[in-house]
Fold this sequence. Notes:
single chain; about 575 residues; alpha+beta; 9-stranded mixed β-sheet; two-stranded antiparallel sheet; globular; disordered N terminus
Amino acid sequence: MKKPDMTDTAAAHSGIIPIVPLRPAKQVMRLARMGSFHQSRLSFMRVLLRRLKAEKWRFKRSRWDIDADGVGVATYEAIGPKRSYTLVAFAHDLPAEKRSDRVIAEAWDATFTLHDGVISNANIERLKRNVPLQEAGRILDDEFVLSRANRSIRLFDYVLNCLAAGTQPDLAKIEPVGYLMRTTAVYGSGKFGAADRDTWADRPEFSGSFQPELLAVWLLRSFTIDLVEHMAAVNSPHNAVKLDSHIRRRIGVGNSTGLGMAPFLVNHPSLIHSWINARETALARVRALKKTDTTGLSRFVELIAKANKNAKKWTTDSLDQRAKIQKLRDDIVQLNAFLHTLNSDIVKPWDTIYRWGETNLSLEGQEQLVSLLLEDHGPLIDNLATTMKADEEAHFRIDGSMHLFQLHKIMNNVYDWTHDIDYEKNDAQARVWYVSEEKLEPRLGERFEEPIEPYEQPLAPGRDAVLAIKALDQWMNAKTNSENDTVAMFLLGHPEHRHIVRRAQTVFVLPYAEIQDNTISATMQPIDLLRCKLSFFGASKFDPRSDRWLRITMYQGAPFPDELTAMDPDALAYPPLISNGQLEH
């Protein structure tokens, strides 16, 4: 079986063959690079907003029963060409001592669900008894999302006090945080009674990944603004003002995300291939363009200035992330200087810029450059968003009729990157992925310090491939006529290798499906898995609180529902400039 060329794979998805080849998986699928990805116009938040705008969705706050203490229920309707959805938001009076971002929390400042259709009073009463309980309650398949959020107390109170006093908050205080509330979980796809993905996957408005969840978060953003303005008006009815639109737009939604999200990239290889293949195909299309003009280069210089402003506003307590941000800032200054040496009449300008970046920038800077190169080429690449999904059942059945020599060749080919890893050493297998009994959430433990190995989850494909290849070698060496033996025969004798055989047969034809790194080594950084996934969501700032959880900002700068008709959401993905195209120093 011939391993498909990446350009061929991209062509199958896109309908065109880029002149510039796609970057090889051995370059892209390393954790350090994946943990340096940035949001782009193919990120799911931006895909959602483009679709809502193109389809002329309408939005309204249909209910506001919030009292003077900021407690009650509100509903927000999203009305599309064929269907409507309702965010039901419950605001609570949460004592400070109960406020926690940990998954084990039992109370929150606000809880939410996204309901299928226009909601009735009876359903609101049903949800009132369940949604505030989160995991302890139950929703039905009429609901697609279950979520909760806590206030960023210092910023929430600061904005509240400013508005109540009749003044606008200082953007310099808003930018570093970027949100008034942060979610601590956004559940969907069947969790806690919510509708299974099969219920809505074929709906055009949800084409792609995580679209119901991200619609709920976008509507939740409106609720956070409405809540702080309501409380300001209650506190000072004669002086209170509403947020100016340009300040309001710089307030997004925060999110606290931990290890629960990390295994997703390993567990969904077909889907991850579709995400990264689309991104790499988009990059190849842009790099293949033969020319630009002075206007194109000027717009790119302006984009770099906006990215620089975003990097300057990005703060974190993480020493590692601080170092990466500083490299990013330095990279942007270098990139800006390089661009001023270019003439607009050079052949394949974007490829020239990319190749310079690959040689001169850090991984953080290189991947920021990739996102920036995509930014101004919507007509060329936006259709790739429709390819960022996968029929994972199509690859689930094991091909038991495959000859063992074919499987052996496939596994050695796909997992050739494991040749540099000695899994006999403790450091190479130091970690164990398991599921906690209390919260049924993924956790990462130390293999040689805790008695958890019997509970290990199959989240180390490299190690498992090495073990399966060793078993294949022994099988084939022990028999003189093993060339006719099949995968089915081998798995009857070695059922412990079923999962990695299935995986090898899947990822062999999907170049970007497998992370080419050791996911159980002592030096593995789970934060890289989290950041990669969240960049595809569209997060614009990452604030690691350890190597196992982080805070992010979503929808900062994006239009609100009442602005979507008049504004281009992609034009707002980076902070606006004070002086056009000039780097701030």
